[in-house]
Amino acid sequence: MADSTAPYRVKGDTGEWEVVVGLEVHAQITASKAKMFSGAATAFGAEPNTQVSLVDAAMPGMLPVPNQECIRQAVRTGMALDAVINRWSRFDRKNYFYADLPQGYQISQLYHPLVGPGEVEILLDDKDENSVKQIGIERIHVEQDAGKLMHDQHPTKSYVDLNRCGVALMEIVSRPDMRSPAEAGAYLRKLRAILRYVGSCDGNMEEGSMRADVNVSVRKPGGEFGTRTETKNVNSVRFVMAVIEHEAKRQVELIEEGGEVAQETRLYDPDKNVTRSLRSKEDAHDYRYFPDPDLLPLELDEAFLEECRSSLPELPDAKRKRYEGLGITPYNAGVLTAEVETARWFDALLDAGAEPRQGANWVVAELFGALNRRNETLATTGISPVEAAELLKLVADGTISGTLAKQVFEIMLETGDAPSRIVEERGLKQTSDTGAIDAEIDKILAANADKVAEYKGGKPQLFGFFVGQTMKAMQGKANPQVVNERLRAKLD
């Protein structure tokens, strides 16, 4: 089996190459129901041009007003990433002309962003909690989104939909600290989890509320950074990993053939799994940035920062450590904290009285297995944490065996009935009645005298056969512990 922590290398004709990756993640601030500088709605999937205010359409005399909730969510996100929060920040105009940008400029932040350096901790191997790597965050700035050109509505014309125009974005810029597609995937999944825990972004990449610009360059291991390309608007973790793999190989082949990598913007075609050139890469001076004259600088006071800080929930890493402290295995703790919905469901299970280790094993193995089989999620299943805790309690107190619990769980999934009712109505209670168990054991030993002789003659592995036969005779309702005890007493 390949070592998941071994360095990722691209093999070329001249030897091995190292890939260098940085991501610029655009995360839509979905916690606010209004845009960055206007009160227009931001609901996904609305009819084109139905969520456009006069500010978004850049009508003469319209002035932008910062949405405080968008600023608050960006600050909370920065705090969750253990980043520097800049008490003084400023909006700049990024000037360029495009049909989906009515103002002719985008309001962004270049020189003085809201959030400074931070970091995200990833695991290079989910099963090894020591395989930790820190990925640096350079900055988070807030900006407004542009609209969208629609090329498939007319045979010769492109239509413009301005619904997204002015939507609040956080641009989370990483340092070039990632060295493989897997690291980039782990970083993006972890970043998405943190945003969803904080509640600042829903992380729905398929709806475009989170997308990544992927910066890739190659170099000889440990050498100088090479020229990077930027592949725009990649909207899934799998595609981000595919872009890195493709771009690294393309760049290595180009360099080894005597060519040079052009610093450019590229697009990814998921159908063909290739990137293609879009335009030469612009530098900041090409956009003629300058302070936006319509907006005052943002100045944050201590009371605002304290409110942001105190409103943060328990974050994935802290929750995982707490779970491990309850006796849950590191792997299970990682699975349970990967998605905020899972963690909330499991916390509710613990609140309902489930024993942590038993509950974690059951959720990861039994519940997730059933949901996958039935193509359901925690949000759509009819099983509540309270009912699950009740089922686990019936096992813990000996009312039903682990085998019977699987049966009861299947009936719960099909009928929606409570576990105690199922056990009562269907007569599934486990028996610890030694008289009834002894009677069945005596019959089985009498019917298998030859095997009893073999067992006593030095074949202890036959003990499992006697247990199985007893459980079968009692239709799985015998308490396995009592069965074991009574068999040992009679055989030994």
Distance linking N and C termini: 45 Å
The profile of the biggest β sheet is: 9 strands, mixed
**Average pLDDT rating:** 92
Continuous helix count? 15
Task: Work out the strand percent.
Answer: 15-25%
Pfam families: GatB_N (PF02934), GatB_Yqey (PF02637)
Catalytic activity: L-aspartyl-tRNA(Asn) + L-glutamine + ATP + H2O = L-asparaginyl-tRNA(Asn) + L-glutamate + ADP + phosphate + 2 H(+); L-glutamyl-tRNA(Gln) + L-glutamine + ATP + H2O = L-glutaminyl-tRNA(Gln) + L-glutamate + ADP + phosphate + H(+)
Subunit structure: Heterotrimer of A, B and C subunits.
EC number: 6.3.5.-
Structure description:
This protein has 15 helices and 16 strands. By secondary structure, the chain is α+β, with helices and mostly antiparallel strands. It has three domains: about 10-305, no CATH class; about 315-425, no CATH class; about 435-490, Orthogonal Bundle (Arc Repressor Mutant, subunit A). Strands 1, 2, 6, 7, 10, 11, 12, 13 and 14 form a nine-stranded mixed β-sheet that branches. The two termini are about 45 Å apart. Belongs to the GatB/GatE family. GatB subfamily. It catalyses: L-aspartyl-tRNA(Asn) + L-glutamine + ATP + H2O = L-asparaginyl-tRNA(Asn) + L-glutamate + ADP + phosphate + 2 H(+); L-glutamyl-tRNA(Gln) + L-glutamine + ATP + H2O = L-glutaminyl-tRNA(Gln) + L-glutamate + ADP + phosphate + H(+). Heterotrimer of A, B and C subunits.
